[in-house]
Design brief:
5 strands; alpha+beta; single chain
Length: 119
């Protein structure tokens, strides 16, 4: 899994304004490490939308065959997102979004150890 972006003051979580990361995961990582920890609602969303939300080509920062998740900095909230999240104008939705160097992580909880200010 790879951290792709940092979203400061993200309005997409239950705790509005919580910071988060956009995580890229291949199919094996998504099914083995992320889907099991999703809320029932997000698991259903994954099952229903997985074919539509998967990157179909490597374009820009999106990698073919990968899925994208929005993860709160405390790793307590995880949302399944469309690959379109990477190309959307997110700043219009609130908060401040910036690209991160590709930071590999083993588990979702590893985001707790990332200090965005260091990048």
């Amino acid at each position: 899994m790879i951290i792709k972006m940092y979203w400061e003051g993200c309005p997409e979580f239950v705790v509005e304004g919580e910071d988060g990361f956009v995580i890229e995961a291949n199919q094996t990582e998504a099914l083995g490490k992320i889907v099991p920890i999703l809320s029932p609602h997000e698991k259903l969303k994954f099952e229903q939308m997985r074919e539509f939300y998967m990157a179909k080509a490597t374009v820009g920062i999106a990698r073919e065959g990968c899925y994208y998740f929005l993860v709160s900095c405390d790793a307590q909230a995880v949302k399944f997102e469309s690959v379109a999240l990477l190309t959307s104008e997110l700043s219009g939705r609130g908060g401040k979004v910036r690209m991160m160097p590709e930071i590999p992580i083993e588990n979702v909880a590893d985001v707790c150890n990332i200090d965005p200010a260091a990048y």
